[in-house]
């Protein structure tokens, strides 16, 4: 079970940190991904972090502004979002799976991020 939290309303240029808490004892066995879906648009890949936390990968639209980290002891993955833009407005969701296989079988409920101009 995955649960994302931390969304809210923020002004353009501001920052927000999302969390995704996982239940169970196998959190460290999965790569974790963040995705987002803006109103009327398809779901978009944001970034991933490997199960060890050793490497991350980001979509070009967020690279340099967003940072993914994880704490396997707390079964939690984070998405630090800086320099937010109105086009970052979306429902952000976390997923667990295997990044190299582009396989994300486990999804959490999303959290809404709204960036005002």
In short:
The chain is mostly beta strands and 117 residues long.
Question: In terms of topology, how is this protein built?
Answer:
Elements: E1 2-5, E2 8-11, E3 16-22, E4 31-37, E5 44-49, E6 56-58, E7 66-71, E8 76-81, E9 90-98, E10 103-107, E11 111-116
Parallel strand pairs: 2-11
Antiparallel strand pairs: 1-3, 3-8, 4-5, 4-9, 5-6, 7-8, 9-10, 9-11
If you had to describe this structure to a student in words, what would you say it looks like?
- A hairpin with a 4-residue loop joins strand 7 (66-71) and strand 8 (76-81).
- It contains no helices and 11 strands.
- The chain is mainly beta and 117 residues long.
- The strands form 2 sheets. Strands 2, 4, 5, 6, 9, 10 and 11 form a 7-stranded mixed beta sheet that branches.
Give keywords.
117 residues, 11 strands, mainly beta, globular, four-stranded antiparallel β-sheet
For the report, how would you describe the main beta sheet?
7 strands, mixed
Taking pLDDT < 50 over at least 5 consecutive residues as the criterion, the unreliable ranges are none
- Strand proportion: over 45%
Shape annotation? globular
Mean pLDDT across every amino acid position: 95
| Percent helix range | under 10%
| Secondary-structure content class | mainly beta
* CA gyration radius, whole angstroms: 13 Å
